Amino acid sequence: MTGIHELGRDSEMSEIDILIAEAGTRRWQLVLAERLAAAGHDVRLVRKPGTDEWPAALEMLLSLEATLARGPARLSTKVDAPAHTTAQGRPGALVIDLSGAASDAGGATLVPVFDGSPSASAAAAALAAGKLPVIALLKGGRVVAEARPMVDSRIMVGRGLEDVLARTISLVAASVEKHLAGTLRPLRMAVPEPQAATGSGAIAGRIASSVAPRLARESVRRLSRWPFHWRVGYRFHDGRGVAETGMLGGADWSILPDDGQRYYADPFAFERDRRHFLFVEEFPHATGKGIISVAEFGADRRPSVPRPVLEEPFHLSYPQVFSHGGETWMLPEGGAGRGLILYRAERFPDHWVRHAVLVEDRELFDATLLEHGGRLWLLAAERDGMGSTSDVMVVFHADRLEGPWTPHRANPILIDRAAARPGGAFAKVGRRIVRPVQDGTGGYGGGLGLSDLIRLDEDAVQFSMPVGILPARNWPHPRIHTLNRAGTLEVIDGIAEVKRRGGGLQAA
Questions:
Q1: pLDDT score for 463
Q2: Strand, coil or helix: what is 11?
Q3: What's the alpha-carbon Rg for the chain, to the nearest Å?
Q4: How many CB atoms are located within 10 Å of the residue 278 CB?
Q5: Which of 444, 432, 475, 377 is nearest to 151 (CA)?
Q6: Region 272-277 average pLDDT
Q7: 9-37 core/surface letters (b: 16 or more CB in 10 A; e: else)
Q8: What are the pLDDT digits (tens) for 349-358?
Q9: How much is the pTM?
């Protein structure tokens, strides 16, 4: 990385000094500096005496994992600081202390802490122990922002640390803009207590007792089973559903059959002309790319075999189908294509055509539509440059379906593995507006929660804390991540253990 200072604007620059350790600078710290400079700030790196020493056993583990992965340099990699790094800060500049040894800082200093520690090594140590780190951002010794990163890989410590560091960048970058706008306020929460320092011996013990067994178990499991294989459940009933009761109990669920060579997931129910349809992501294991398929229920309430209706060069999922303005539309997830595309049913349900690109050049996932307060709203998860796709919540609003869609001024709304990524269409329960939301605490697809809308306007977005859906004996796959309903048809999905057996698969 070169030219951080030169990337700043020529006038009206916001001066930002980033404190880094004289030794032990990590790539994520320079990536953050580049991002802030690209946003138009005058960013300088300032050496701070001392070093952010990580336990030797942890360094060895990260180095070994990086070598085996053979990918690009990781955010945790040690790097040389740019030559123009200065040795002294500037009066009046916003200070971000990334030195890993933050002390009592002034009121204009932002300090990210990992489970209470200013060193990111604490996050790595937590991951090695099978825990999920929490990032808090301090300003003047008070918590002003918090992030609960989604960790997609629970096996490899280095991969999990990538997710944590990526969201540290997101948290600090967003907080800088809010600080400069005067909207960064202390949260009503205590400053995290730093955990006891973890030495190299303790890390080695965690590797032997936790990391190695997890890796061994998952390696053995994947020899005989697919990493993920979803099953779709459906039921017809007139009574209260999951959105009303918060549990899977009630009428029995049936399973949409699959041939074992593919799975179906992300079910959306749709009713038209008294006919019931089930739109799903179809994922053939052989291709590793999702397409959108549809099944129709007959008079006996049995589904047809899903047939493909929409495919793109990139992965598609989350086939949100809805009616608006006399037309039938689909807004599927296509984050890999870096655009949110609206499709119109030219011949329902089999022929869909591109109608408009609602949001360009952003990786949005499971964007879900809501009409509220006389406006249209889209709530989605976003991959913010790097890291997981399931922990950054963003919101857009518009006067009409085709847009233009305006990003909410408070974006990102939150960074939370249990409250960011949508898990189905909004449900109206009496006067309540209920949002199904994915809970990644137990891993991707680990659970689904229900959250009530409290406030949604151009100034603020607020939901209640999600409450997890309770499992029931009438559904064998309690790890669910999608919930939808249309009329009497209610649908969910869940992860199944499916064995690889020759040309076919069997449920474990």
A1: 98
A2: coil
A3: 24
A4: 27
A5: 444
A6: 94
A7: eeeeebbbbbbbbeebbbbbbbbbbbbbb
A8: 999 999 999 9
A9: 0.91
């990210």: which residue's tokens?
A: 112
List, for residues 161-180, the tens digit of each pLDDT value.
999 999 999 999 999 999 99
Task: Report the Cα 16 to chain-centroid distance in Å.
Answer: 28
Which residue type occupies 357? Answer: V
Going by pLDDT thresholds of 50, 70 and 90, the confidence category of residue 291 is very high
- In this structure, what DSSP letter does residue 261 have? S
Residue 472 amino acid letter: A
From the CB of residue 318, how many other CB atoms can be counted at a distance below 10 Å?
28
Provide the Cα torsion 77, 83, 85, 88; round to 10°: 140
| CA angle in degrees (0–180, nearest 5) for 187-188-190 | 100
Structure tokens at 66: 């990086």
Question: In which band, very low, low, confident or very high, does the pLDDT at 215 lie, cut at 50, 70 and 90?
Answer: low
436 phi, psi to nearest 5 deg: -70, 135
Query: What SS3 class is residue 493?
Result: strand
The count of other CB atoms within 10 Å of the CB of residue 357 is: 15
Amino acid present at 405 = W
Where residue 207 falls among pLDDT bands split at 50, 70, 90? low
Q: What is the DSSP string of 368-415?
A: EEEEETTEEEEEEEE--SSS-SSSEEEEEEESSTT-PPEEPTT-S-EE
Structural domains in the chain?
5-222 (3.40.50), 225-507 (2.115.10.20)
SS3 205: helix
Name which of 15-19, 71-75, 135-139, 337-341 the model is least confident about. Answer: 71-75
